[in-house]
């Protein structure tokens, strides 16, 4: 438990100036906490290292932390998991998105748990706090992409897979209802 709280503290400090992209401008730290919570709810026996990695999953790509810094503050295993799920920000956005699909089958089971829970949280945000400026088509493209990313990750958790399917269905149903309302 001490290591988990240390990861929350580290991530909160790293993300202190960041907000989510939706109109609520939620503190960014809420996202990694949600990712860890989703894992615990569906896989209650998940090792603490994986939960710490879930909390820290965006500190390399979004905050400039290094793998070595995470290893020194926590341990090698946590650092490796975080690195596995970190995008290379030197790549263009479309290349990073393609790389997530390409690498998903090769992730460790621990990283697959984090990746799956991350996509549940992000797809869920499409219903509760859609990023400013995103239209319905962009939201659906995101859900399609997220489905491709999580497809090889599903093997690690039936519960998380079912949650992903449910939230994806909800987003698609919302889209259909919006389309029908627009057609009048």
Write the layout of secondary structure elements.
Layout: H1 2-14, H2 30-42, H3 48-56, H4 59-63, H5 67-73, H6 76-84, H7 93-103, H8 109-128, H9 136-150, H10 158-183
Helix pairs in contact: 1-3, 2-3, 2-8, 3-6, 3-8, 5-6, 7-9, 8-9, 8-10, 9-10
Helical residues, percent: 55-70%
Tally of contiguous helical segments: 10
Major β-sheet annotation: none
What is the radius of gyration computed over CA atoms, rounded to a whole number of angstroms? 16 Å
CATH architecture: Orthogonal Bundle
Q: What structural category arises from helix and sheet content?
A: mainly alpha
Mean pLDDT metric: 94
Total number of strands:
0
Shape: globular
SSE pattern: HHHHHHHHHH
Question: Into how many domains do the coordinates divide?
Answer: 1
Q: Do you know the CATH topology?
A: Hypothetical protein af1432
CATH superfamily: Hypothetical protein af1432
Query: Would you identify the regions where 5 or more consecutive residues have pLDDT less than 50?
Result: none
Cα end-to-end separation: 53 Å
In CATH, what is the class?
A: Mainly Alpha
Portion of residues in beta strands equals under 5%
């Amino acid at each position: 438990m001490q290591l988990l709280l240390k990861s929350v503290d580290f991530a909160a400090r790293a993300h202190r100036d960041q907000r989510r992209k939706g109109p609520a401008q939620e503190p960014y730290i809420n996202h990694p906490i949600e990712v860890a919570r989703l894992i615990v709810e569906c896989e209650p026996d998940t090792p603490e290292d994986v939960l710490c990695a879930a909390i820290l999953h965006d500190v390399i790509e979004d905050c400039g932390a290094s793998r070595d810094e995470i290893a020194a503050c926590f341990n090698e295993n946590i650092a490796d998991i975080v690195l596995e799920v970190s995008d290379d920000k030197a790549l263009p956005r479309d290349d990073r998105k393609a790389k997530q699909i390409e690498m998903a089958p090769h992730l460790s089971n621990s990283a697959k748990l984090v990746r799956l829970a991350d996509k549940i949280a992000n797809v869920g945000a499409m219903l509760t706090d859609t990023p400013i400026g995103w239209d319905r088509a962009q939201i659906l493209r995101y859900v399609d992409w997220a489905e491709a990313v999580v497809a090889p990750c599903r093997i690690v958790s039936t519960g998380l897979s079912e949650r992903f399917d449910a939230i994806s269905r909800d987003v698609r149903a919302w889209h259909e209802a919006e389309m029908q309302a627009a057609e009048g």
